[in-house]
Amino acid sequence: MCYSRKRELGCGEWRGELRLRAAFVYTNRDKGLVKMTRFMVSLLEKAGWTVKAIEVENITSPVNFRPFDLVFVGSHVVSSWGGKISGEVTNFLQGVSGMEGKRSIAYIRPALFGTDKALRRLMAQMESSGAFVVDFEAVSTENEARKLIDRYLGKG
Q1: Which range of residues forms the domain containing residue 126?
Q2: pTM for this model (two decimals)
């Protein structure tokens, strides 16, 4: 028996192409993070992915991640010495559903100090929500963002 997200013609024969779905969860408190996220969203859309961008500050109802193939979660470093991540992102991840076993990627907009610790905290928070973190990156330039995306487009 064959399954597809598109209309089934016969086993192994499909009309159209299978479009992968990605979700980007991020905070809008850091303008640099917003810029990098929008850049990564545009790269995936150009590659034919269906992408949903979710700003955690603008969410009023629960979000279900079951329909997504890949979930990106981004934050900025809030505390330079402690390496803390955005409280909004932490609160959002505690209330999500459908993250169990979901392939996910953590990304941080780096600061002078505390970037590694913040990235570890973000990954731990994602894993406590049930996500399977497959990659992580501190993204400060468009080139670094492109490399992160290219790893999932088969170019890197």
Answers
A1: 19-153
A2: 0.85
